[in-house]
């Protein structure tokens, strides 16, 4: 097997590339470097600088590297930007996926892993979200992920491609400081950013129907997430899967924003109290995965906790923001 990892120089993609290469898989990364950093990739993983929207390039890469499976992570991922620029998000995330799937089908590639998101569920109002919980995304980003899943399954059925859609919950942490997320779009880097500016962390809303009034999320360490991709790839290459599989990737444990901010205070030593501001539109009170199917279908379960996520993310933050 040779796996093409699109978005392989990105935050999650580089972790996936490393985990798969370390486990002895042959991998090649494709990234247009719009948000990626080639230095994240290990020396033994070749990087093709180009877009997953370029069908001719994909054809060449598949042939030159003998690609037999694809892990597709390349995407635009900022919710607020997707609200402001929906056509761009549909073109990049759905149009780009269609181009990629055409190339995959033409090349006779039979294994495909797709980066989906808990954003497909929207605000389902259940204690634990199973893969059968109805999907109702509340922003264009989530819509592109749900439409992407539909497209992946339809093309898989039409061309005999075995597919796995991984619905990640809230990703945090780093396997090594140099692999850390350098964007400030998720809560952990957002709090680090505030503290680095000598400002109090912000909590958006403390009047939700939750025990401490703040939103509850399911945080997953990126190193665990990378291992889930390896498990999905192995399941496909071992012939264990036929058809399509959709799996939540979370820990099955809820952590409130206030609890998370407390852990960040303990890890950084900066325990200044958070300021509470108004709710942000579109934030669900609670989004926690049922993590059962991943155990049954992939033999995978998360091993790392929130303190490890925050500690490793803080080391990465300090590396990237030194001085
Ligand atoms: N970070 C999260 O919390 C999270 C949660 C759920 C799902 N996801 C999904 O995981 C995937 C990876 O996210 P990330 O956090 O690593 O983001 P990221 O921005 O760090 O990585 C995406 C990578 O893809 C590259 N890229 C973007 N468009 C491309 C294209 N058309 N062709 C080639 N390369 C392209 C970027 O340069 C970047 O390196 C995305 O599909 C995202 O939607 C992320």
From TrEMBL:
- In short, the EC number is 5.1.3.2
The record's section on InterPro entries has: Epimerase_deHydtase (IPR001509), KR_dom (IPR057326), NAD(P)-bd_dom_sf (IPR036291), UDP_G4E (IPR005886)
Q: Which GO terms describe its molecular function?
A: UDP-glucose 4-epimerase activity
Q: Which Pfam families match?
A: Epimerase
Q: What is this protein called?
A: UDP-glucose 4-epimerase
Q: Which PANTHER family match?
A: UDP-ARABINOSE 4-EPIMERASE 1, UDP-GLUCOSE 4-EPIMERASE
Q: Which organism is it from?
A: Streptomyces prunicolor
Q: Tell me the name of the encoding gene.
A: galE
Q: Which reaction does it catalyse?
A: UDP-alpha-D-glucose = UDP-alpha-D-galactose
């Amino acid at each position: 097997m040779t796996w093409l990892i699109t978005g392989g120089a990105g935050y999650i993609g580089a972790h996936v590339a490393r985990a798969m290469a370390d486990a002895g898989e042959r991998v090649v990364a494709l990234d247009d470097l719009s948000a990626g950093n080639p230095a994240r990739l290990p020396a033994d993983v070749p990087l093709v600088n180009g877009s997953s929207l370029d069908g001719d390039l994909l054809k060449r890469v598949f042939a030159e590297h003998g690609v037999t499976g694809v892990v597709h992570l390349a995407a635009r991922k900022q919710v607020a930007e997707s609200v402001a620029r929906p056509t761009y998000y549909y073109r990049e995330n759905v149009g780009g996926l269609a181009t990629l799937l055409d190339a995959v089908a033409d090349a006779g590639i039979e294994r495909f892993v797709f980066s989906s998101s808990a954003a497909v569920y929207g605000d389902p109002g259940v204690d634990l979200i199973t893969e059968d919980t109805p999907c109702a995304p509340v922003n264009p980003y989530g819509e592109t992920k749900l439409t992407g899943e539909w497209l992946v399954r339809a093309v898989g059925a039409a061309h005999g491609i075995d597919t796995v859609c991984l619905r990640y919950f809230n990703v945090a942490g780093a396997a090594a400081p140099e692999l850390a997320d350098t964007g400030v779009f998720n809560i952990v880097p957002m709090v680090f950013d505030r503290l680095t500016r000598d400002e109090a962390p912000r909590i958006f809303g403390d009047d939700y129907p939750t025990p401490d009034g703040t939103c509850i999320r399911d945080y997953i360490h990126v190193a665990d997430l990378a291992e889930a991709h390896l498990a999905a790839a192995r399941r496909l290459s071992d012939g264990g899967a036929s058809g399509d599989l959709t799996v939540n990737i979370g820990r099955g444990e809820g952590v409130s924003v206030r609890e998370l901010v407390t852990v960040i205070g303990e890890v950084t030593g900066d325990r200044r109290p958070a300021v509470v501001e108004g709710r942000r539109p579109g934030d669900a009170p609670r989004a926690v995965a049922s993590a059962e199917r991943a155990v049954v279908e992939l033999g995978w379960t998360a091993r790392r906790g929130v303190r490890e996520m925050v500690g490793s993310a803080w080391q990465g933050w300090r590396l990237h923001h030194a001085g």
